[in-house]
Amino acid sequence: MSAKQNIVIPIGDIAGVGPEIVVKALNHPEVYEWCNPVVVGERTALERALNVTGLPLVPEEIGDARAQEYRHGRIAFYDMKNVDAARIEFGKVQAEAGRAAYEFIEKAVSLMKEGQADAIATTAINKEALRAAGVPYIGHTEIIGTLLDVPDPMTMFQVKNLKVFFLTRHLSLKDAIAAVTRENVYRYIKRCCLGMKALGFENPRLAIAGLNPHSGEHGLFGREETDEITPAVEQAQEEGIRISGPIGADSVFHLALGGSFDAVISLYHDQGHIATKMVDFERTISVTIGMPYIRTSVDHGTAFDIAGTNRAGERSMYEAIRLAAEYARTYTYSVI
Known about the structure:
By secondary structure, the chain is of the alpha/beta class. It folds into two domains: 187 residues, Isopropylmalate Dehydrogenase (3-Layer(aba) Sandwich), CATH 3.40.718.10; 115 residues, Isopropylmalate Dehydrogenase (3-Layer(aba) Sandwich), CATH 3.40.718. It is 37% helix and 18% strand. It has twelve helices and twelve strands. Strand 8, helix 9 and strand 9 form a beta-alpha-beta unit. The longest helix is centred in the first third of the chain and has 19 residues.
């Protein structure tokens, strides 16, 4: 039995680039030095991805992930036998592909619950395909959270050593601003502190970005910093949390990337997304915490426009597997 962590990898929506980038990532020998990659998918989809990419890897169906020997050149995978890739057209929303993608995730989660995998690294799924299949979830986080009975997992982005949490994500900018209240900010600071501790940071150094230009300039450009954010920060500081800010969004991410802080709290979706993706778009990884198992994911979509063309790069999938393996060794589950 290997001492390395088993990282389970569902192949995503097979009408997109998921299978391609999975096999490309597993073509890197060092992946097998980090972990034991356990793929959940379907044989015809993997074979099609290998045909597209021209890689000489061999799919090897398995039944017990803990008893398996893992080595570069062979893809250890669970064959769900739930979809025929010949019926799935690249680049189109298809209910059958959406249903299969959901079932791949469902199996991956069951493997973790059974003790056959230690963490999960996911590739892209398509929200429209899920809806067409009657799957009542909009994405991985909701699916995995429900399957693990975790109602509100947290998302963190990581690129290099920059880690970013999001007070709000899929809200309009108007609604996101309305959500910047003292209560919400204070509660989220505490959750971020617990989340960083779960990742192995004993006493994390946090910073929170300002909402307005120059963090409001003491009320000249908006009062959210003065009335809501600063009181929340001071309350958290009184409880021993190392939190700084609000710091202008034009500088706080740069400071964290340079090592001044362990993580930054972004106040809305694009504020944090732009900051991370401008550092390195392909290496920006989504990390889900607050669940019994760590989950990492590529931070791009199914790329229907280039699916099946061998143009999709595997760097994000590669980094997601690497980060899952790294965190799986130290991650401590706590309710956050």
